[in-house]
Amino acid sequence: MRRKVIAGNWKMNMLPNExxxxxxxxxxxxxxxxNEVVLCMPYTDLFYALLTAQNxxxxxxxxxxxxxxxxAYTGEISGKMLKSINVEYVIIGHSERRQYFNETDETVNKxxxxxxxxxxxxxxxxxxTLEQREAGQTEEIxxxxxxxxxxxxxxxxxxxxxxxxxPIWAIGTGKTATKEDANHSIKSIRNKIAQIYGQTVANGVxxxxxxxxxxxxxxxxxxxxxxxxxxxxxxxxxxxxxxKIVKFEN
Length: 250
Ligand code: 13P
Description:
With about 250 residues, this protein is an alpha/beta fold. It has helices at about 15-30, 45-50, 80-85, 95-100, 105-115, 130-135, 140-150, 155-160, 180-195, 200-205, 220, 240-245, and strands spanning about 5-10, 35-40, 60, 90, 120-125, 160-165, 205-210, 230. Strands 1-2-3-4-5-6-7-8 form an eight-stranded parallel β-barrel, surrounded by six helices. The longest helix is centred in the last third of the chain and has 19 residues, at about 180-195. The radius of gyration is 17 Å and the shape is globular. The structure holds 1,3-dihydroxyacetonephosphate. 1,3-dihydroxyacetonephosphate binds near residues 171 and 212. 1,3-dihydroxyacetonephosphate binds next to strand 8.
């Protein structure tokens, strides 16, 4: 049985004192869950959050990293730097980064490889635009993005990659994919992984859904056969609301 991983993506929100307060409020609310709880936050929050989350079941992640270890890349943060303060997860290739910061399938692949090199767990985002969806290209786009992101990884690394299927038209819009639709897309990603790396590997890969997840729709989505939890934006900014998503079974 795959575990459920519920990850918050705070995007460019939350100051360190807000991050600390959030974790202090969230920790007792989620302490008994069997689901994996992850918060992905701005770099400036990470160190404070890691200290506050010590002795809790809350894992901390970044939202991006550079693929090089060190060098003349002004403004960038490397996987080695994240690992040095004990960050555990890193989001790679979020559609906002692909759209506004020129991330490509190639840089995503380099970053995924670098994440493994430095012992970080990558959460790789894939998803189609509204135009691609309307043109009937959803499966083609998301399976290609997945294939290119995972290119050159070992089977073991693939099995330890988390994929977040986030249809771009569902992000921050209040529109959610139907549970059947999301499950179907996620199955197509899993089938592609099975084709390349074998069914056993594919069966082990955690594939999340993201896009307007909230406490009122989390249960129906996360109970689907292939949806292994979620990557949550807006609804991860309030500890009480996020805790309900983490404990979606209740
Ligand atoms: P929303 O949950 O705000 O739609 O954002 C989804 C997302 O982009 C998570 O990475």
